[in-house]
């Protein structure tokens, strides 16, 4: 009887070869790997003492741009959500090239007109620096402001 092999990643069979080869390793290949072998003299498939190898695939930060719509007076939190391994060692929030925070999130307790604009979150790990752009847009207006804008538009339109 020839030897039979099974390679597992996170308790799921990934190969039945004596050697498991991963071509073009990516972040989804991370996990615990172990192999079982069976032949006519030995069967270790039911053994609990398997040697386990852990594959830790590392990669630079990747971030997504975002947009927040709010109204004046709202409290908002800008969060820099980063996919990276290892995790970022530093964060920097900036607006108009001015540094605001070195945390992964930035709070604005009460939004006002001066808070509109582009906020940049920079996340850095040992491999690379990546940036996320969050645009804070104030579109929701109170009813009195909406009415004033509406009247101004009618008045301007009637003079043309």
Summarize the structure.
It is built from 1 helix and 13 strands. It has 160 residues and is mainly β. The strands form 4 sheets. It has a 5-stranded mixed beta sheet, with no helix packed on it. Strands 2-1-3-4 form a 4-stranded antiparallel beta sheet, with no helix packed on it. Strands 5-8 form a two-stranded antiparallel ribbon.
CATH superfamily of the largest domain: Immunoglobulins
Order of strands, widest sheet: 6-13-12-9-10
CATH topology term of the largest domain: Immunoglobulin-like
Second rung of CATH, namely the architecture of the largest domain: Sandwich
What's the number of extended β-strand segments? 13
pLDDT < 50 runs, ≥5 residues: 143-160
Provide a descriptive summary of the structure in words.
The chain has 160 residues and is mainly beta. Helices cover 10% and strands 44% of the residues. A five-stranded mixed β-sheet has the order 6-13-12-9-10, with no helix packed on it. Strands 2-1-3-4 form a four-stranded antiparallel β-sheet, with no helix packed on it. A hairpin with a 2-residue loop joins strand 9 and strand 10. It starts with a strand and ends with a helix.
């Amino acid at each position: 009887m020839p030897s039979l092999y099974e390679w597992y990643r996170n308790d799921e069979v990934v190969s039945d070869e004596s050697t498991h080869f991963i071509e073009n390793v990516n972040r989804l290949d991370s996990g615990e790997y172990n192999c079982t072998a069976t032949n006519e003299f030995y069967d270790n498939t039911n053994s609990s003492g398997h040697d386990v190898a852990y594959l830790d695939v590392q990669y630079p930060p990747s971030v997504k741009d975002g947009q927040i719509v709010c109204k004046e007076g709202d409290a908002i939190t800008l969060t820099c959500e980063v996919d990276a391994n290892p995790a970022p060692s530093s964060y920097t929030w900036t607006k108009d090239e001015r540094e605001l925070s070195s945390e992964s999130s930035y709070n604005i307790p009460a939004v006002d007109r001066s808070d509109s604009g582009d906020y940049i979150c920079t996340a850095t790990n040992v491999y690379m620096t990546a940036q996320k752009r969050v645009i804070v847009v104030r579109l929701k207006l109170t009813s009195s402001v909406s009415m004033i804008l509406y009247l101004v538009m009618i008045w301007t339109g009637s003079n043309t």
